[in-house]
Predict the structure.
Amino acid sequence: MNINATLIGQAIWFGFFIWITMKYVWPPLQKAMADRQAQIADGLAAAERGKHEQELAAKRSADALREAKEKSSDLIAQAEKRAQQIVEEAKGTAKVEADKVVAGAKAEIDQEVERAKQALRERVAELAVAGAEKILRKEINASAHADMLVALKQDL
Amino acid sequence: MSAEGGTAGYIQHHLTNLVVCADSAKVDGVCTGFWSFHLDTLLVSGILGLVVFGFMALMASKATSGVPSGGQNFVEMVVGLVDQQVRDTFHGKSALVTPLAITIFVWVFVMNAMDLIPVDFLPVALQAATGNHELPFKFVPTTDPNLTFGMSITVFFIMIWMNLKVKGLGGYLHEIFTAPFGAKLAPVNFIFRVVEDIAKPISLALRLFGNMYAGEMVFILIALLGLYQLPLALPWALFHILIITLQAFVFMMLTVVYMSMAAESH
């Protein structure tokens, strides 16, 4: 173990290498590592934010879906109601129309009956006259009814 | 395994540094004075440091906060590990502590890792390349106390600087003379403090040196077994991976603890 001036030389080497590390190795590496750490932290925060936003969006879409369902069931109920109404209305109209047709038919029937009655009445008169004629032909003779005929002549 | 000098010579050769010094500093033609340099320690630690810190600086210069490349990812992993330890231990604000901890961990780790290259590979290759078969060359810089003390003494001075910066000269002196027993026992406090602070760089340096030196020694002894080294060298190398990492981590961690103590008032 002989100590000599090598010691001084080694101290100089040591100091030189400390200087290199202090000036050229540590600062850029420290900066790069710190920057990367910041980037990773930012990335993780962004991921967290994205996840949160995705949850919110899922909630929103569920809400929208439920609203749409409610709206559509409302619409269906309304439409059914309206359909029923239309059917009711149609029924009413049909009844009125039918009544009108029935009334028309009745009136016509009445007219027909009246006409038939008229015709029958006329026929009855004719028959009465024809019957009367036949009776008259048998009963009547000029002599027997001369007085009446004379009276008629005089009326004319 | 070179046969010259026998077993003792082999071991001795593996534990000898490549020393250079000016002719005027030589004693009997050998560099034993203070002004001599372990060329192997200086070169290997310097080249390893230049390669790894150059690579890290290159990766850092291309660093992006987006998807990182494989290299950037690897560097970030290492740097992030050290940074986490610093965050857990050091609660002050300092632009120096994390880079200091990164430098220590990475540099000590790669230097220790040289231990995993079989003990004769690189020295023999170098001897063949230079033609000098007696050329000593230690490839594990952390087995040289000059390196570990060079680092720990630097850490010691940074620690004092940190004390002065955080507490100011008055605050630092006040702490030295009054903690932990109060102003009445100022001399005792001072002696305690001196022992405590001197012990820090010595324990840092000797722990790393001792662990790596012992590990290297075991590798050398295993290498002496010839063919029988094969079933032994692998388990020891696997076990040594643990020591390599642990020692780098301990040196870094203790440095951070010392800095944290320096930055906190008692």
In short: The mean pLDDT of chain A is 90.
